[in-house]
Amino acid sequence: MNETGRTREMAAGGSNFIIENEVFQLYIAHACINILKMIFVAYYTVFKRFANKTFSTKEDYEGFAATMEKDDVKKKLAECNPEVERVRSCHRNDLENIPAFLVVGLLYALTNPGVDAVSLHFRVFTLCRIIHTMSYLLPLPQPSRFLGFSVGTLSMVSMAIQTLLMGKL
Amino acid sequence: MNETGRTREMAAGGSNFIIENEVFQLYIAHACINILKMIFVAYYTVFKRFANKTFSTKEDYEGFAATMEKDDVKKKLAECNPEVERVRSCHRNDLENIPAFLVVGLLYALTNPGVDAVSLHFRVFTLCRIIHTMSYLLPLPQPSRFLGFSVGTLSMVSMAIQTLLMGKL
Amino acid sequence: MNETGRTREMAAGGSNFIIENEVFQLYIAHACINILKMIFVAYYTVFKRFANKTFSTKEDYEGFAATMEKDDVKKKLAECNPEVERVRSCHRNDLENIPAFLVVGLLYALTNPGVDAVSLHFRVFTLCRIIHTMSYLLPLPQPSRFLGFSVGTLSMVSMAIQTLLMGKL
After folding, report:
1. A161 to chain C: which residues are within 8 Å by CB?
2. pLDDT surpasses 90 at A137
3. How far apart are CA C89 and CA C132, in angstroms?
């Protein structure tokens, strides 16, 4: 292929060399798994809200529980349902970890650490997130949730420090 | 341009071929719109806090409502203002969706799905986020907020599954 | 190097030209600093939970405070500990800002604005996040936290608007 041809292919094709790279295939898979897991938790909150008839606003009760008495709605809005709050806490912990992983995982992959190192860090993180979610939602006795959280963040800290060494403040 | 010349341009220019790509122009626009929308919600929370004189810490009351009685501050800190909480819930839903979109949208664009498919997914997501925010803040009756949330996540799930197929666990 | 050689190096090497670019070295450093700061806040929450024996679920009390009376556990679960909530609020503000910065900072760097402009935006943002965290956790009197938050978001808005101009809806 000539120069112009390749430049054009890159411009049109959106960095095919990224997709063909094994490290990026790992990144793509783990990023999507974690995002899909997080969206599952979002829908599980919706499910728990309907199962417990516990919503967050007045218009939710009007739309989804129209037969409920006004006093009951007021009471429900003032208190928290522990089942719904459990899923929300689980979701919040995802928000504290997954978006950071999505970026630090990509940057770490760009520093060329080798497929095995990338694979180890990504698998540990994803497995820990799944353990964390299961520990929260089933629930499992501690310290399973704590281990899921802390080992997952250690994988992130390891990636962040290795990446930071390639950077410049 | 010769080999060295192009390599140098890439190194110096920060991947101009990415910027010239129509799919990335779509990504850049939708990413920024969603981020700006989210920052708007953050400032709307600040506005609602000042409008309702409802802050989250003791030092906020000392700094921004110095004339308020100590007992009133204590009472205000112990309770939640529904107007402020509404904006915070809206913001939290953004946090549950927009950072994930920012990554999955980029990865999906990298898988070369064609401009039309990218455009459709991004427009649906952004439109749904705007509908969701308006439904929460005006507010609009349900199921407008629920549709904004669920159709937006469906767009993300579609992108994540298509991207995942290019990956490797 | 011949064509095939370079293509192969790019495929194997994961975009070395990105790593060798000064703008990306800035991005990498600031991204990692902000992520590590956010993970520090996560662990500080854990520390405050243990220091105040205040956990979020029944199984936490069973696992980490087994000697506590059942009635005390129930009471503790129903109320909020202000020290723990302070760290959680600080963390939430990070979630509202850092993931958005991680994406908009990268996109802004890709638009080729020059090293000085990138460096200014990134340093302002990172410094503001550190000021915000210190203001929340020490705490410092207002308006230090408000300035940390608002100047940091202004840096993001500036980057987002400049990037948006390169995009296409």
Report:
1. 32, 36
2. yes
3. 11
Alpha helices in A52-142 (DSSP H): 58-64, 70-78, 82-110, 115-137
Contacts of B41 (CB under 8 A, 6+ apart): B87, B90, B91, B94, B133, B137
What is the spatial distance between Cα A96 and Cα A99, in angstroms, rounded to a whole number? Answer: 7
Cβ-Cβ contacts under 8 Å for B121 (sequence gap 6 or more):
B105, B108, B155, B158, B159
User: For B9-22, how does the pLDDT look when each residue is reduced to its tens digit (9 = 90+)?
Assistant: 444 344 455 566 88
DSSP structural state of residue A60: H
Buried b or exposed e, range B109-138, using 16+ CB within 10 angstroms: bbbbbeeebbbebbebbbebbebbbebbbe
Q: Which residues in A have their CB inside 8 Å of a CB on B? A: 3, 7, 10-16, 18-19, 22, 25-33, 35-36, 38-39, 42-43, 56-57, 59-60, 62-64, 91, 95, 98-99, 102-103, 123
Say if residues B125 and B108 touch (Cβ distance below 8 Å).
no
Task: Tell me how far apart the alpha carbons of residues A35 and A14 are, in angstroms, rounded to a whole number.
Answer: 22
Mutate to test the interface with C, among B6, B39, B122 (most CBs of C within 10 A): B39
- Cα dihedral B131, B104, A101, A13, rounded to 10, equals -150
What is residue A1's DSSP assignment? -
Residues with Cβ within 8 Å of C86's Cβ and at least 6 positions away in sequence, in order, are: B57, C136, C137, C139
Report the C-alpha gap between C129 and A39 in whole angstroms: 28
- The ipTM estimated for the assembled molecules is 0.85
Q: CB of B19 within 8 A of CB of B58?
A: no
Closest CA to A22 of A34, A30, A33, A14: A30
For B35-83, the pLDDT digits (tens) are 999 999 999 999 999 999 999 888 888 888 888 888 888 888 888 888 9
User: What is the maximum alpha-carbon separation in chain B?
Assistant: 75
Q: Contact B31/C103, CB-based, under 8 Å?
A: yes
Q: What is the pLDDT of residues C110-161, one digit of tens each?
A: 888 999 999 999 999 999 999 999 999 999 988 999 999 999 999 999 999 9
Q: Residue B113 — φ and ψ, nearest 5°?
A: -85, 0
